[in-house]
Write a structure and sequence with these properties.
Distance between the termini: 102 Å
Shape: rod-shaped
Helix content: 40-55%
Order of helices and strands: HHHHEEE
Number of domains: 1
Structural class: alpha+beta
Strand content: 15-25%
Strand order of the largest sheet: 1-2-3
Radius of gyration: 29 Å
Number of helices: 4
Length: 161
C-alpha cells in the first residue's frame, strides 16, 4: 500500500511573503503614529512656553504700571529693540533706572526669550483702552516653502490692566 503525497512546492514561501508584507505595513503604521505623537508633543510644549512667556511679560507690565504705555510694541519694533548703556544700568542691583528704561529692558528680555524658545519666535503687545493683548508667533514647521513661507502658529492672551 502506497500513500500518495501531493507536493505543493513554494506554498509556504508565499505564506511567509504575505506575512512579511502585513508585518511591514503594521510597522510603518507604528512609525507614523510615533512621528505624529512627537509632533503633537512639540506643539503642546510650544503652546505652554507661549503661555508662560505671555504671563511673564504681563506680570512685568503690572509691576511697572507707571510706564505701561512703553510696552506697546509691534513685531518689527520688538525685533529692533537693543540694550543701550541706560538699559545696562537696570542690571545692576545698586542703580535705579527709570520706568521707561525698565520697560525697554523687560521687552529686550522678552524678545530674547521668544527667540531662544521658539523657531522664528516673535511677539507683539497692543494696549487699547486699558486692555492689553499679547501675541506670540512661531513657526511649527521649521522648513519653509520655496517662497520662504512656513506655517505660523499664534498664541494670543488678553487681559485688563
Amino acid at each position: 500500500m502506497y500513500l500518495s503525497i501531493k507536493k505543493s512546492s513554494g506554498f509556504t514561501l508565499i505564506e511567509v511573503l504575505v506575512a512579511v508584507v502585513i508585518l511591514t505595513g503594521g510597522l510603518l503604521g507604528l512609525v507614523a503614529l510615533q512621528a505624529t505623537g512627537l509632533s503633537n508633543n512639540q506643539s503642546a510644549y510650544n503652546r505652554s512656553q507661549a503661555t508662560q512667556l505671555s504671563y511673564d511679560i504681563a506680570d512685568r507690565m503690572r509691576a511697572n504700571a507707571s510706564a505701561v504705555a512703553s510696552y506697546a510694541v509691534t513685531e518689527a519694533a520688538l525685533s529692533a529693540i537693543s540694550c543701550t548703556d541706560e538699559c545696562k544700568t537696570c542690571d545692576s542691583s545698586g542703580k535705579a533706572c527709570s520706568p521707561a528704561q525698565l520697560a525697554n529692558k523687560d521687552l529686550l528680555d522678552w524678545k530674547n526669550a521668544l527667540s531662544s524658545s521658539f523657531p522664528n519666535g516673535k511677539g507683539s503687545i497692543q494696549i487699547v483702552n486699558g486692555f492689553c493683548s499679547i501675541s506670540v508667533n512661531w513657526s511649527e514647521n521649521r522648513d519653509a516653502d520655496s517662497n520662504g513661507n512656513s506655517d505660523v502658529t499664534t498664541f494670543v492672551m488678553s487681559f485688563q490692566l
